[in-house]
Design a protein that fits this description.
With 287 residues, the chain is an alpha/beta fold. It has 9 helices and 6 strands.
Length: 287
C-alpha cells in the first residue's frame, strides 16, 4: 500500500497549522484531498491521545476558561434547509482552559454550549491539576454548577461578566454588541481581584480564528464533519502547546509548564503517528 513519506506528512501539517484550508493545502503540496483528510483525522487522534496522557499533574496557579463559536456543515438556523446535513450539523463550541502563567492550553473540548458540556469540561480540567487554583470564567451560567461539581470547595472561583449594548449596525453583525462594562463576581473562595481576567484565553481564541481556516468567518472553509473539526482542534493545540514559541515567553507553553524540555518539530508529531501505526500493525498481526 502506498503511504506518504515523513517529509510529505510534515509539509501537509505545516500548511494546516498555518491556517490553510484543505483545498489550498492540496494545491500547495500536490497531495490528494482524501489523503490530506485521512492524515488530518489520524494526526488529530494521535495528538489528542498524547496530550490527554501528558497534560496531567499540572501545577497551575491561575486558569482562565472561555468558549469559542464555530459551526459544522451549516449554521444552526440553516440546518433544516441544508441538503443531506449530517446528524451533528449546526453550531459547535470549543471550550478552552488556559494557564495564565505558562499560556498552556490545559484542556479543551468540542461540543454544544450547554450544562452537560460545561460539566464534562470542568471535570476534565480539575482532573489535570494537583493543587488549588484560581479559576476565572466568563458569565456563562452553566459554569456555576459545573465548577462546584468538578472542584467542590477546593477552588477560588470568579466570573468576569461583560455587559454589551444591543445596538448593532449591518457592518458589525458578526461582532459582539457594543461593549459597555464588565464586573468581577466572586463565586467561591478568595480569588485575587487583580487576576480575575479572561484576557489570555480570549487572545488564544483569536489565535484559533487566525490559525485554523475552519474558524475563519465569512469563508467556505468551515468544517463539513464534526470529526474533522475536532481533529483540527487537537492538531492546533499540539502545535500551540509544543511546537510554536510564544512571543512573550520565548519558549513554548509546554516548556513553560515543564511538560517538555525542548521545542518540538513537526516531524516529531509525525513520529508519534508512525509509532501509533506501528503499534496497530503489531496488534493486528498478534490478533
Amino acid at each position: 500500500m502506498n503511504r506518504l513519506t515523513t517529509e510529505d506528512r510534515v509539509r501537509v501539517l505545516a500548511a494546516l497549522v498555518e491556517g490553510n484550508s484543505i483545498r489550498s493545502t492540496v494545491r500547495m503540496t500536490g497531495i490528494s484531498k482524501p489523503t490530506v483528510l485521512k492524515l488530518l483525522a489520524d494526526i488529530g487522534r494521535v495528538c489528542g491521545e498524547y496530550q490527554d496522557k501528558t497534560l496531567r499533574n499540572l501545577r497551575c496557579r491561575r486558569i482562565q476558561c472561555d468558549e469559542i463559536w464555530s459551526f459544522v456543515y451549516a449554521k444552526a438556523r440553516n440546518v433544516k434547509a441544508a441538503k443531506a446535513a449530517p446528524p451533528n450539523a449546526g453550531d459547535v463550541w470549543t471550550w478552552v482552559a488556559l494557564d495564565a502563567d505558562s499560556k498552556l492550553a490545559v484542556s479543551w473540548m468540542v461540543g454544544p454550549r450547554d450544562y452537560a458540556s460545561a460539566t464534562a469540561f470542568m471535570q476534565d480540567v480539575a482532573a489535570r491539576l494537583v493543587n488549588k487554583v484560581q479559576l476565572t470564567t466568563d458569565g456563562h451560567n452553566a459554569y456555576l454548577n459545573a465548577v462546584e461539581d468538578a472542584f467542590g470547595l477546593d477552588v477560588d472561583f470568579a466570573q468576569l461578566q461583560k455587559i454589551y449594548g444591543s445596538e448593532r449596525t449591518d457592518a458589525s453583525r458578526y461582532s459582539p454588541g457594543h461593549y459597555i462594562a464588565s464586573r468581577k463576581v466572586v463565586v467561591q473562595g478568595d480569588p485575587d481581584p487583580a487576576h480575575v481576567s479572561t484576557s489570555y484565553v480570549e487572545r488564544q481564541n483569536l489565535t484559533m480564528r487566525m490559525q485554523m481556516r475552519r474558524f475563519t468567518r465569512l469563508t467556505n472553509g468551515f468544517s463539513k464533519k464534526v470529526e474533522n473539526h475536532a481533529a483540527m482542534v487537537a492538531l492546533h493545540f499540539m502545535a500551540y502547546n509544543f511546537v510554536r514559541i510564544h512571543q512573550t515567553l520565548r519558549i513554548t507553553p509546554a516548556m513553560a509548564a515543564v511538560v517538555t524540555d525542548h521545542v518540538w518539530d513537526l516531524s516529531e508529531l509525525v513520529a508519534l503517528l508512525e509509532a501509533s501505526e506501528t503499534s496497530e500493525r503489531i496488534a493486528a498481526i498478534i490478533a
